[in-house]
Amino acid sequence: MTASTETRAGDRPATQPPAGRRSPNGHQKGRVKASKPSVRLGLRMRRNWQLYAMLALPLIWLAIFAYWPMYGVIIAFKDYNVVSGIWGSPWAGFKHFDRFIESYQFWKLIRNTVYLHVYELVATFPLPIILALCLNTIRKKWFSRSAQLITYAPHFISTVVVVGLVVVLTNPNTGVANKFIGLFGFGPVDIMGDAGMFRHIYVWSGAWQTMGFAAIIYLAALTSVPPELHEAAIVDGASRLRRMWHIDLPAIVPVAVILLILNIGSILSVGFEKVLLMQNNLNLDTAEVIDTYVYKIGLASAVPQFSYATAIGLFRSVIGLVLLVLANTFARRFAKSSLW
Amino acid sequence: MTTAGTLPPDEQRLAVGSPIQDTRGDKIALACIYTALGLFCLAVLYPLVYVISASVSNTSKVSAGEVWLWPVGFTLDAYKAIFDYDAIVSSFGNSVYYAVAGAVVATILTLLAAYPLSRKGLPGKGLIMALFVFTMMFSGGLIPTYLVVDQLGLLNTRWAMILPTALAVWNVIITRTYFMVTIPEELVEAGKVDGCSDFGFFWRIVLPLSKPIIAVNLLFYAVAQWNSFFNALIYLTNEHLFPLQVVLRQILIQSRVDPSQMPDTSKLAQLKELQQQLKYSLIVIGMIPPLLVYPFVQKHFVKGAMIGSLKG
């Protein structure tokens, strides 16, 4: 009895204002709409000229730093040289793409990139969901608050520092990780210099850093679960785990699907900065991915091959875009939730 | 935090006055959840605490593996060594400059983009929005962007650190959603009736109402700028312009210590001794600024991210 009245009292402030706002709003909108067809587009644009003026700076930025580089992508089909510039350089067709696909690096790069990304996805995608479900179930406010405060924190530490942390902690001579291994009677291991360990280190240090922050978006989705559902389930004798599984989890699924689509779209672009920072001569066998290769042959080498590097980068972007569209189509058909 | 992390209202109520007790299964489940969360928090905290302890411990004790959690043989030598290494001090200053300037420029651009796009019935709004969103899915890539920065003559200038990353589309979306939620259409209409121009309305009404989202943008961009290292790596070769992250990479990851950065050569031998130590203290120095602003960001950013993700 008390419970139901309280629910109603609690509900009222939540539903009332939108309803109250909606009626005058809808009224006004109706008026504006009615007068709209008579106002020509040109006039409407002129009336809003100040808004366009505000947009000018961001649009100029967008044109220079986002769309000008997209135009520059045509050097992937040319033999670019600095003297003739982007437009003046001779056309080369698909020469650079052919060269990349036939190069001995090709399959190694694809394998390393896809493997690293899929491993990361499978290992770290469910973690924030589990974390959010747990945090949402907890009753003690101070506990869930401090758990959130702690788990979000690594997100704000830079990649350089995180990799530095890993390097220092796994140092074969002085690192504490090796001291732990030593406790179980194993000799010191040069973890960073081991090509076989690279993926594990990359993925799990990533989980350490991002898991807490990634849970935020799921926690947000969980706030939309109406408390009545939980009440009804409790009355029906559903256990805590059952409620997590049948009430909380379904609320998360649409968000999870969207994040999954975005993730699949970027399957060929792993966390490039971090991979580059973690690379050394000993682990290159597994640590060389497409993006770091582009950087090396395009900018870091003594004889930069701009066109070739751009072609490889474009190859990756196009595949990423195609995968994004495919994943989205798939999700729209089967999961009823999609990006567009 | 908002209600997300706290308990659903029903459970609050039940916890206070309900006769329904937890079943044994529920108690076990809860215990497991608490244990798992506790363990995870420990796993997150341990490396951080260890590094702080190691940075104030005696070098030989750290190398010998005597430090597990708390400092052994307390000393601040590692921190003193930092101030003797010129590159760290100057790059710290550069990083502060990039973070502040970058955040201001980026926030202004974001607000200017987000407000018009939040207004109903602006002709061409959909197209402009699409132009922004498309850049999230497809970009020119590394080399073409580098060539643009080169052609603009920005290489080896401070602008190269600030301009190419001056706008994050994700922030525009979040800020725009914030405006759509907090600035009701009636307010815009009322402003128009009173003869307020769009500029005036933005300046006098919208900005004062948007302090939280402005703060989020500033802090978000500042932290991103502070943490970024790749732009410096490709656009800068002049080491007087290097941000802290580049120097951190040299010392922490590449173990490269440049003797010419030590004006006082008598301290050189001491520095080599302290090199391992220096790494721990440098990690702490690199972590602290973002972690200091983090509690402020957390409160607002989480809210902003939620609004943006749910309604955007």
TrEMBL record, chain A:
<feature type="transmembrane region" description="Helical">
    <location>
        <begin position="149"/>
        <end position="169"/>
    </location>
</feature>
<feature type="transmembrane region" description="Helical">
    <location>
        <begin position="306"/>
        <end position="327"/>
    </location>
</feature>
<dbReference type="InterPro" id="IPR000515">
    <property type="entry name" value="MetI-like"/>
</dbReference>
<dbReference type="InterPro" id="IPR050809">
    <property type="entry name" value="UgpAE/MalFG_permease"/>
</dbReference>
<keyword id="KW-0812">Transmembrane</keyword>
<feature type="transmembrane region" description="Helical">
    <location>
        <begin position="201"/>
        <end position="221"/>
    </location>
</feature>
<dbReference type="GO" id="GO:0005886">
    <property type="term" value="C:plasma membrane"/>
</dbReference>
<feature type="domain" description="ABC transmembrane type-1">
    <location>
        <begin position="110"/>
        <end position="327"/>
    </location>
</feature>
<keyword id="KW-0813">Transport</keyword>
<keyword id="KW-0762">Sugar transport</keyword>
<dbReference type="Pfam" id="PF00528">
    <property type="entry name" value="BPD_transp_1"/>
</dbReference>
<feature type="transmembrane region" description="Helical">
    <location>
        <begin position="49"/>
        <end position="68"/>
    </location>
</feature>
<comment type="similarity">
    <text>Belongs to the binding-protein-dependent transport system permease family.</text>
</comment>
<keyword id="KW-0472">Membrane</keyword>
<keyword id="KW-1003">Cell membrane</keyword>
<dbReference type="GO" id="GO:0055085">
    <property type="term" value="P:transmembrane transport"/>
</dbReference>
<feature type="region of interest" description="Disordered">
    <location>
        <begin position="1"/>
        <end position="37"/>
    </location>
</feature>
<keyword id="KW-1133">Transmembrane helix</keyword>
<protein>
    <submittedName>
        <fullName>Multiple sugar transport system permease protein/putative aldouronate transport system permease protein</fullName>
    </submittedName>
</protein>
<dbReference type="InterPro" id="IPR035906">
    <property type="entry name" value="MetI-like_sf"/>
</dbReference>
<feature type="transmembrane region" description="Helical">
    <location>
        <begin position="114"/>
        <end position="137"/>
    </location>
</feature>
<feature type="transmembrane region" description="Helical">
    <location>
        <begin position="249"/>
        <end position="272"/>
    </location>
</feature>
UniProtKB/TrEMBL annotation, chain B:
<dbReference type="InterPro" id="IPR000515">
    <property type="entry name" value="MetI-like"/>
</dbReference>
<feature type="transmembrane region" description="Helical">
    <location>
        <begin position="96"/>
        <end position="115"/>
    </location>
</feature>
<feature type="transmembrane region" description="Helical">
    <location>
        <begin position="278"/>
        <end position="297"/>
    </location>
</feature>
<dbReference type="InterPro" id="IPR035906">
    <property type="entry name" value="MetI-like_sf"/>
</dbReference>
<dbReference type="GO" id="GO:0055085">
    <property type="term" value="P:transmembrane transport"/>
</dbReference>
<feature type="transmembrane region" description="Helical">
    <location>
        <begin position="28"/>
        <end position="52"/>
    </location>
</feature>
<protein>
    <submittedName>
        <fullName>Putative aldouronate transport system permease protein</fullName>
    </submittedName>
</protein>
<feature type="domain" description="ABC transmembrane type-1">
    <location>
        <begin position="92"/>
        <end position="293"/>
    </location>
</feature>
<feature type="transmembrane region" description="Helical">
    <location>
        <begin position="201"/>
        <end position="223"/>
    </location>
</feature>
<feature type="transmembrane region" description="Helical">
    <location>
        <begin position="127"/>
        <end position="147"/>
    </location>
</feature>
<dbReference type="GO" id="GO:0005886">
    <property type="term" value="C:plasma membrane"/>
</dbReference>
<feature type="transmembrane region" description="Helical">
    <location>
        <begin position="159"/>
        <end position="181"/>
    </location>
</feature>
<keyword id="KW-0813">Transport</keyword>
<keyword id="KW-0812">Transmembrane</keyword>
<comment type="similarity">
    <text>Belongs to the binding-protein-dependent transport system permease family.</text>
</comment>
<dbReference type="Pfam" id="PF00528">
    <property type="entry name" value="BPD_transp_1"/>
</dbReference>
<keyword id="KW-1003">Cell membrane</keyword>
<keyword id="KW-0472">Membrane</keyword>
<keyword id="KW-1133">Transmembrane helix</keyword>
